[in-house]
Design goal:
Largest sheet: 3 strands, antiparallel
Number of strands: 3
Organism: Streptomyces spiralis
Shape: globular
CATH topology of the largest domain: Glycosyltransferase
Helix content: 40-55%
Strand order of the largest sheet: 1-2-3
Protein name: Terpene cyclase/mutase family protein
Number of domains: 2
Keywords: Membrane, Signal, Transmembrane, Transmembrane helix
InterPro entries: Terpenoid_cyclase/PrenylTrfase
């Protein structure tokens, strides 16, 4: 799969009657040819099913790389919000109020919250969005892709990331006495039983209540169980365990589920360095996006060292995929670089930040951070530095002109 929410999007297909090919990655052809795209939007393909998602990832990735996004790109994202606080995948006409025909979803909403919270200055927008997310929490503590849909690991995880981004404690957000972590634990496979899927997270139970290991859901579940979001940071030191160890001993809490999930991912990438696609007809084909998510999950749980094999594989093999897939793919690779302490401007010889920036409106500036964490503009700063320089130059030119003029005048007056 090319984007992390593919599993959730495919679940929505059955729920809202959308054909599966249309809910694909950013690289999928437009179902209506070449649509006229908003100038503030990242990516060149039809945004109908992933506009808010890819925009949110792009803005968040730029922020983590020290880039200040274009104002119109941020405005486009905030303009997609409905009056009730929710976001849909894409609204072509934002002048019309959202009605029952606008299919809002938790994934787009939670991704937008993570991006806007990171950028800062959007408290009203994120506050309304989080209030809406809380209002559609399921009785098991989790979230489905759309309001009222059965909870799944991916949707619950992206919402956990949104809650954390705005300073909420996920364990305190409850419905019917259940928190998001209670829901995630219900999707976690034990270490006993199927050795291949031991410790993994399932996307959601099947009709018989059976859990099946899902690598995409596992990567999401590990990060969420650690209380982090899309742009997760690496664990310090040796992390909270890792390697390929899976254990049912001790307390069956989020920390244990995260460690077990990371153990599953470590085994899955141990042989070849990448995860394989589960899409029909994609036998033994690498899943670049899921592998990038696995890098983030492994680093968040066990530290950057535990993610080196899949990271190195991505550095060697992901260029063509990212170029075809667009901004969300570049963002996922930026997140993988961030989680492992890798320079996103030299990712296997590729400048991911430059490539990402090129998929949308030019960013305002690059932002540098001092030792105290304060931000300062390294260049650009809306042109202020340029105007100061120009003003100083003008003063110098005038002063020199006056001096030359006085000199010439003195010479004329000399006898």
């Amino acid at each position: 799969m090319n984007i992390r929410r593919s599993a959730a999007a495919l679940a929505a297909v059955a729920l809202i009657g959308i054909s599966a090919p249309a809910v694909a990655a950013d690289s999928s052809p437009s179902p209506s040819g070449s649509p006229t795209l908003p100038s503030g939007l990242y990516g060149t393909t039809d945004p109908k099913y992933d506009g808010v998602w890819r925009q949110s990832l792009a803005l968040l990735a730029q922020h983590t790389a020290g880039v200040r996004p274009a104002a119109k790109a941020v405005d486009w994202l905030t303009g997609q919000q409905c009056a009730n606080g929710a976001f849909a995948s894409f609204r072509a006409d934002t002048s019309r109020a959202c009605d029952s025909k606008v299919v809002v979803d938790t994934n787009s909403t939670a991704a937008a919250v993570q991006a806007l919270a990171a950028l800062g200055g959007h408290g009203a927008t994120t506050g309304k969005a989080v209030s809406w997310l809380k209002s559609v929490q399921n009785a098991d503590g989790g979230w489905g892709y759309t309001p009222g849909g059965p909870s799944d690991t991916n949707s619950t995880s992206v919402v956990v990331g949104a809650l954390t981004a705005v300073g909420e404690k996920p364990e305190a957000v409850r419905k019917g006495g259940k928190s998001p972590y209670d829901a995630l634990l219900e999707f976690a496979l034990p270490c006993s039983g199927d050795a291949a899927g031991a410790g993994a997270f399932a996307y959601q139970p099947d009709k018989k209540g059976t859990l099946a290991a899902n690598a995409d859901a596992t990567a999401a579940g590990v990060v969420a169980a650690l209380g982090q979001g899309l742009a997760a940071k690496a664990a310090s030191g040796d992390g909270n365990g890792g390697g390929d160890r899976c254990s049912d001993s001790g307390k069956a809490g989020p920390a244990r589920a995260a460690a077990n999930g990371a153990a599953y991912l470590a085994r899955a990438v141990g042989k070849d360095g990448y995860l394989t696609s589960v899409l029909p007809g994609a036998t033994d084909q690498p899943d670049y996006g899921n592998t990038a998510d696995a890098v983030v999950a492994l680093a968040a749980q066990g530290g950057a060292a535990t993610a080196q094999k899949p990271l190195q594989w991505l550095e060697k093999h992901s260029e063509a995929w990212a170029k075809q897939s667009g901004p969300a793919a570049y963002a996922q690779l930026v997140f993988a670089a961030r989680a492992t302490g890798t320079d996103p401007r030299d990712f296997g010889g590729i400048d991911l930040v430059e490539r990402l920036n090129a998929t949308g409106p030019a960013p305002q500036a690059a932002v540098a951070k001092d030792k105290e964490g304060a931000t300062d503009v390294a260049k650009g700063n809306s042109g202020h530095a340029v105007w100061w320089a120009a003003g100083i130059l003008l003063v110098v030119v005038i002063a020199v002109g006056l001096m030359l003029s006085r000199g010439r005048g003195d010479k004329v007056r000399q006898p």
